[in-house]
């Protein structure tokens, strides 16, 4: 009689392990974004005409450690791909930030040389690429910060 709950528990454990293994294997996170050459790194009111920030080093910082990086191209576009991600999506969302490590003065000398643009991350959805389930995160909005925390 006592064996049924045990069997159930063992099956649940097996399912949980299988699920977490699948997640570990398929845990790919894609973080694309565009950095603009403005005081807050975001697109301005003039929209499409906002100048972009090319050749900027974008770091993914998690709990103060740099986990990955990418450089913006001539359109200010960058893409950080974690394949596999060393951290679960929930942890990346809660403890990671994007930091533009190149000072804003690099793209426009009238902009500050001190401080760095920092943005938290936002979940936008998942996409299937072949058999792989890719989680897509984007910058939630950059801000100029003197202290990265
Ligand atoms: C950026 O990442 C590459 C590996 O992808 C690493 O070799 C390089 O040191 C990193 N650069 C910085 C500034 O973190
Ligand atoms: C930057 O990368 C994006 C996405 O791949 C691409 O659409 C764009 O043409 C690239 N810009 C330049 C100047 O290469
Ligand atoms: C540089 O930044 C200033 C202040 O934001 C702006 O008025 C100017 O148009 C910018 N120059 C270029 C070339 O983007
Ligand atoms: C990808 O995985 C997430 C959670 O792990 C799930 O919610 C989502 O439906 C999956 N997406 C696809 C397209 O299978």
What is the CATH third-level topology name? Immunoglobulin-like
CATH class: Mainly Beta
Topology as H/E string? HEEEEHEEEE
Number of domains: 1
> Can you give the mean pLDDT?
85
Low-confidence runs of at least 5 consecutive residues: 5-26
Number of DSSP-assigned strands = 8
The small molecules bound here are: 2-acetamido-2-deoxy-beta-D-glucopyranose
Helix proportion range: 10-25%
| Estimated radius of gyration | 20 Å
Shape: globular
What fraction of the residues are assigned to beta strands by DSSP? 35-45%
What is the architecture at the second tier of CATH?
Sandwich
Terminal CA distance reads 56 Å
**Helix and strand composition category:** alpha+beta
Helical segment tally? 2
Q: Main beta sheet: strand number and arrangement?
A: 8 strands, mixed
Protein name: Phylloplanin
Keywords: Signal
Organism: Escallonia rubra
Signal peptide: 1-24
Structure, briefly:
21% of the residues lie in helices and 38% in strands. With 149 residues, the protein is α+β, with helices and mostly antiparallel strands.
Fold and architecture overview:
The chain is of the alpha+beta class and 149 residues long. The protein has one domain: Immunoglobulin-like (Sandwich), CATH 2.60.40. The chain is 21% helix and 38% strand. The protein has two helices and eight strands; from the N terminus they run αββββαββββ. The protein has helices spanning 3-26, 89-95, and strands at residues 28-34, 57-62, 65-71, 77-82, 96-100, 116-129, 132-139, 143-145. Strands 1, 2, 3, 4, 5, 6, 7 and 8 form an eight-stranded mixed sheet that branches. A hairpin with a 2-residue loop joins β2 and β3. The longest helix has 24 residues, at 3-26. Bound molecules: 2-acetamido-2-deoxy-beta-D-glucopyranose (NAG) (4 copies). The site of one 2-acetamido-2-deoxy-beta-D-glucopyranose has 6 residues, from loops. The site of one 2-acetamido-2-deoxy-beta-D-glucopyranose has 2 residues, from β3.
């Amino acid at each position: 009689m006592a064996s049924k709950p045990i069997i159930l528990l063992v099956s649940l454990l097996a399912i949980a392990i299988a699920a977490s293994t699948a997640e570990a294997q398929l845990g790919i996170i894609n973080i694309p974004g565009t950095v603009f050459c403005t005081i807050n790194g975001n697109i301005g009111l003039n929209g499409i005409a906002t100048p972009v920030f090319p050749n900027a080093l974008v770091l993914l910082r998690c709990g103060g450690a740099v986990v990955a990086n990418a450089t913006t191209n001539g359109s200010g576009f960058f893409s950080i791909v974690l394949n596999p991600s060393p951290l679960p999506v929930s942890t990346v969302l809660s403890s990671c930030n994007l930091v533009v490590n190149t000072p804003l003065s690099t793209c426009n000398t009238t902009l500050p040389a001190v401080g760095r643009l920092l943005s938290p991350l936002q979940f936008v959805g998942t996409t299937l690429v072949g058999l792989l389930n890719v989680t897509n995160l984007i910058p939630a909005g950059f801000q100029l910060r003197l202290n990265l925390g």
